[in-house]
Design goal:
Elements lengths: L4 H17 L8 H5 L19 H6 L7 E7 L2 E8 L6 H18 L5 E10 L5 E11 L5 H9 L7 H7 L2 E2 L1 H8 L5
Parallel strand pairs: 2-3
Antiparallel strand pairs: 1-2, 3-4, 4-5
Helix pairs in contact: 4-5
């Protein structure tokens, strides 16, 4: 017998088997191939916020201020945003506030209160933080009209009706910098 007969026969039998069975090999999950992938942090109305998905949810928001701290105790979310420099305009702060409140009250079903603080970071002293502004917003006080009002303010001070509805507290640092200072 030829010494190449046995390895050759094994090779041709293997290749023949592969060629005969290849038409039967189809993807098992054709449905998942045709559907687009949905990110974990997909925001849809009726979304339930939990301690397990809060980081993904907030990471997906188009915030321009870094999040310093988040705490979730259903039905209340506390969040601190860091204002890193004096050059930041009020319109950017208002935009971030509006984005967080809109997400919390329009995209979720279980957030009824948002406690938000804007903290100024003192770069000279390292990690020292100073409270600029705090608010305590409730779901029943928020609506799309209030978001529009916030967005239209631009560099104007917060009017009293908005302060009352969102329970805003402005510190002396906020008033000195954004109301009487040159950045307003």
């Amino acid at each position: 017998m030829n010494r190449f007969f046995l390895p050759g026969a094994a090779f041709f039998i293997t290749m023949g088997t592969v060629l005969l069975l290849s038409p039967f090999d189809r993807p098992q999950n054709v449905i998942s191939v045709s559907k687009p992938a949905i990110p974990v942090s997909y925001q849809q109305p009726g979304w339930e916020l939990t301690s397990g998905n809060i980081v993904d949810a907030l990471h997906s928001l188009p915030l321009t201020l870094p999040i310093r701290r988040v705490e979730w105790t259903e039905p209340s979310m506390s969040i601190d945003l860091t204002v890193s420099g004096p050059e930041i305009k009020r319109s950017i702060l208002y935009q971030n506030i509006a984005d967080i409140l809109t997400f919390s009250f329009s995209s979720t079903i279980n957030v009824n209160q948002v406690k938000l603080r804007l903290l100024a970071e003192d770069k000279w002293l390292g990690t020292t933080k100073h409270l600029l502004l705090a608010l305590d917003a409730k779901r029943e006080d928020w609506n799309a009209g209030l978001r529009s009002e916030l967005m239209r303010l631009g560099e104007s001070p917060l009017p009293d009706p908005i302060k009352l509805r969102l329970h805003v507290i402005e510190t002396m640092l906020w008033k000195n910098h954004f109301i009487t200072g040159q950045n307003g």
